[in-house]
Amino acid sequence: MKNTWLILGAAMALAAVSVQATPITGEIDMSGTATLNSINLGTATGATSFSGVSVGGGPTGAFAGTTGATVSWNAFTWPGGSANPLWTFTLAGLTYTFALSSDSVVAQSSTFLNLLGVGTLSITGAGSTYTPTTADWSFTISNPTGGNHANFDFTFANSQTGAGTVPDGAATAMLLGTALSALALLRKKLMA
Questions:
Q1: Domain boundaries, the chain
Q2: Torsion angle of alpha carbons 92, 85, 121, 170, nearest 10°?
């Protein structure tokens, strides 16, 4: 009977470890060149292509060590645009992806564009323990002269608060049920 309790305890410990997911934390910045659907920044409503995009600055948290990684971007529109994925890159066997859920225009003129929004970050690959995590983001283009251009340099920043992680698919409820069952069995054993 003693071995049964040890086996049950070990199984519960393994179950608890196997469902642990880590929210993505940290910040990542990128920059590159965007081709917009208008040569005038003030009238553009979307980015049609990107080139020369890489991770810059000092990435933190789950993004530490990604500086210089080349990033692939997909087209998106504003306001209210979405793209799945908006961007992605692979480094050291891990694939980093951002799915754009929403965007809004904070400021737009012929000299400046600032978009803010929300999306979901994912880090997948062998050994990844990360769960998809909601993140705030910003996309900025500065055009000091206000002139027309075929391409515009941009910056992009992500910041994770961990507040909007994707649900764990009832694993927590299963663990709670297992723990309560174990307590009931222990109580029964002690009462006998």
A1: 22-166
A2: -110
